[in-house]
Design brief:
Blueprint (H helix, E strand, L loop, with lengths): L5 E7 L1 E3 L14 E3 L30 H8 L4 E2 L6 E2 L15 H7 L15 H4 L7 H24 L1 E29 L7 E43 L4 E54 L15 E16 L8 E6 L1 H6 L5 E7 L4 E6 L1
Antiparallel strand pairs: 1-8, 2-3, 4-5, 6-8, 6-9, 6-11, 7-8, 9-10, 11-12
Bound molecules: zinc ion (ZN) (2 copies).
Length: about 375
C-alpha cells in the first residue's frame, strides 16, 4: 500500500498571558497551555491576538483525544460576548448564543489560522542560531592583532618634543669611483657586448612525452533509490492551541556500485631537452674606491679626484649634520645631532632655538621653529 505524501504530527502550544494587573502596570506573564481559554493564574480570557509558540520542551502528542482536539479546527469568537469557543461547540459556552458562521465570515472575523506555513525548513533554521557567534570570532582576533600592531608602531615611532639650541654644524662628502674590469661569465645566453670564449650542448631541462596507456578496471557508482522517509517540511498554527508539523514523504537514495568500467591512464616519461651553454668574457663596472672631504663648518666642498682610464664616478653622497644641546638641564638627552638634507641644513641658523621631535632612541626626526 502506497504511503500518503504528507502526514501530520501535533504539538501542544503555549501562550503567555499579557493581562495587566488592576493596581499595577506589570503584566501577568504566566505561560499557559495552548488550548486553555483562560489564564491559569489570573483567570483573564485568552486575547484575540494571542501568539501561540512551542519551545524545546514541546513534544509531539500521542493522546487520541488531544489529537482529535488539535485536528478539530480553529477556535471561534462569539460575536455577542467576544468569548473564544472550541470548534466543536455550537453554542457559546459563556453566553449561550448559537454560532453564526456566515456572519463571522461576512465580518471577516473567522480566525485567520491555517495560513502560517513554513515549507522547506532546513535543519539549521530549526536549530536556531547556535554556532552563529563562532563566525565572528576571527574578526575579534583581527581586531586584537591590529591593536597590538598599532601599540608597537607607536612605541617605535612615538616622539617627544624638546627645546634645543643649535651649537654647530658638520658635513661629510664622498665620491664613489668605479672601475671597468673584464670578467668571465657563463650561461644559456650572453650580453651583446660579450666575446664568446666557448660553447657546448648541455641538458637544460626535461619535458613530458606520452609513452603508452594503461587500462584498469574501476567500479561504477550510482545513486540508487532504496526507500522513502518522512521529513519535516512545514509548520502550521492551528489556531486552537496546537501547532501542526507537516511531514513530507521523500525518496531516500544511496550510493551503490552498479558495475565496473575500463579506465585509461596515460603514462608519460621525462625526455631531456638540450640547449647551448656559453662561456664568455664581458666588461662590467665594479666599485673601486672613494675620495672623502669633511668639516665642522657650513662651507662644504666636494673632494678632488682624478679618473684613470676605465674609471668613472659611481655616486656622490653628502651627509649634513646639525649639532644641538637641550635647553632643559633635566632632559634625558643633553646633546643631540640632527641629520638632514643640504637645503634644510643650509637654512638652519647657529645659536637659534628650535623644537626637536626626538625618538626614544635619541634620534632627532624633525626640527621645528617655535
Ligand atoms: Zn494571567
Ligand atoms: Zn458568547
Amino acid at each position: 500500500m502506497a504511503k500518503p505524501n504528507t502526514r501530520s504530527k501535533f504539538k501542544e502550544a503555549k501562550w503567555k498571558c499579557t493581562a495587566e494587573g488592576l493596581y499595577s502596570d506589570t503584566i501577568c506573564g504566566h505561560i499557559n497551555r495552548g488550548p486553555d481559554q483562560k489564564c491559569a493564574k489570573c483567570n483573564t480570557h485568552r486575547p484575540a491576538d494571542v501568539v501561540f509558540f512551542t519551545d524545546e520542551t514541546s513534544e509531539f502528542i500521542t493522546d487520541k483525544e488531544k489529537i482529535a482536539d488539535a485536528k478539530a479546527g480553529p477556535d471561534w469568537r462569539c460575536l455577542t460576548c467576544n468569548y473564544d469557543n472550541k470548534a466543536e461547540d455550537f453554542h457559546c459556552v459563556h453566553c449561550g448564543t448559537l454560532r453564526n458562521k456566515d456572519e463571522e465570515e461576512w465580518l471577516g472575523l473567522e480566525r485567520d489560522r491555517k495560513k502560517k506555513v513554513y515549507t522547506g525548513m532546513t535543519k539549521a533554521e530549526k536549530s536556531g542560531t547556535s554556532g552563529g557567534w563562532k563566525k565572528y570570532l576571527k574578526y575579534v582576533w583581527f581586531g586584537l592583532a591590529a591593536i597590538v600592531i598599532l601599540i608597537l608602531i607607536f612605541m617605535f615611532t612615538g616622539t617627544t618634543e624638546y627645546e634645543v639650541t643649535v651649537t654647530g654644524f658638520s658635513w661629510e662628502r664622498e665620491i664613489l669611483i668605479e672601475e671597468e674590469r673584464l670578467v668571465e661569465e657563463e650561461g644559456w645566453d650572453y650580453p651583446s657586448n660579450a666575446r664568446v670564449l666557448s660553447k657546448e650542448t648541455r641538458q637544460s631541462g626535461t619535458k613530458q612525452v606520452y609513452s603508452h596507456s594503461e587500462w584498469t578496471e574501476e567500479p561504477v557508482y550510482e545513486e540508487v533509490l532504496v526507500g522513502q522517509e518522512y521529513v519535516d517540511c512545514g509548520e502550521v498554527d492551528n489556531g486552537n492551541g496546537y501547532i501542526e508539523t507537516v511531514q513530507c514523504l521523500e525518496n531516500v537514495y544511496e550510493t551503490q556500485q552498479v558495475g565496473t568500467e575500463q579506465v585509461e591512464h596515460e603514462v608519460y616519461i621525462d625526455e631531456p631537452v638540450y640547449d647551448t651553454w656559453y662561456v664568455y668574457e664581458v666588461e662590467r663596472w665594479f666599485y673601486s674606491y672613494s675620495e672623502y672631504s669633511d668639516g665642522n663648518d657650513k662651507n662644504p666642498f666636494w673632494p678632488k679626484y682624478t679618473l684613470a682610464k676605465k674609471e668613472r664616478v659611481q655616486d656622490e653622497v653628502g651627509t649634513y649634520v646639525v649639532h644641538l644641546k637641550s635647553n632643559d638641564p633635566d632632559s634625558k638627552f643633553q646633546s643631540l645631532t640632527y641629520q638632514t638634507n643640504e637645503s634644510e641644513w643650509n637654512a638652519i641658523k647657529l645659536n637659534k632655538v628650535y623644537i626637536a621631535d626626538v625618538k626614544r632612541s635619541g634620534t632627532v626626526v624633525r626640527l621645528k621653529t617655535q
